[in-house]
Amino acid sequence: MADPRHDSVTAPGAPPLAYTQAGAGADVVLIHGSLMTRADLFMGLADSLVPEFRVTAFDRPGQGESGREGPTGTPWRQAAALHAAAQSLGLQRPVLVGHSFGGAVALAWAMQFPEDLRGVVALAPIAFPEVRLEHLLFAPRSTPIVGPLMNETLAAGIDKALLPILWSAMFKPQAIPERFASTFPFNEAGSRAQVEADGEDAAFLNAGLMLSTMNYPACRTPVRIFGGGADLVVNNNLHGKLLARLLPDGKYTDLEGLGHMVHHFAQAPIAEAVRDLAGR
């Protein structure tokens, strides 16, 4: 694989969004989850996709090297920002691959701009409103005045111990791959600014998911969903499987024995789903 391009794009109405791009062919866009950056999905899937596709992995607003203008907003607002960035880069009807929170963003993109994409591959997506751990751990840090002070205080102590535990739990029952452990930008993903953005994401998540839930039955985009049977982060029975039943063209595939980070261990079926959607 040729060296990927690292750059940023500023589209009208959107903050500067950092991206990594490699390959040639039909477009594929990768959208990462919480406490992650674009490096995660690119690291997991680029080797399988770049030989056939032009792959563009974005840092979501407020995440990684991307900026934010005001609060990060719901998955719907983030989807609009990413769509504008993709349009500015000249991406043509991509297949979206979204993981976890990024899956919620990819689905919101599909329901807002169905004519501008070929399909969605949702990996362990958060699809329906619920009370989640990140609401308790991070959402309070997005509150005015008190939140930034709380975030600064916790970042200096608790986060240094907490975040490695959360990253490890994402991969369980598998171990963190050696390549990920040695090259992923943990300092960036666990920075005070990104954790504050994760708090905003958590605070706005359920409002966006309520809107998504009302729109799933009218979604015109084909969606292929993958979930790990041993996922400790997202209950795929309550999210991916139910989502597949509500979508007009949804299909769920259970990856038995895998945890939340399925894209690091099941590249082949994910790549095949991308090929299928890209060929439509």
UniProtKB/TrEMBL annotation:
Question: Keyword annotations for this protein?
Answer: Hydrolase
- MF term (GO), any: hydrolase activity
Q: Which GO terms describe its cellular component?
A: membrane
The record places domain AB hydrolase-1 at: 28-272
Which Pfam families does this chain map to? Abhydrolase_6
Q: What is this protein called?
A: Alpha/beta hydrolase
The species is Phenylobacterium deserti
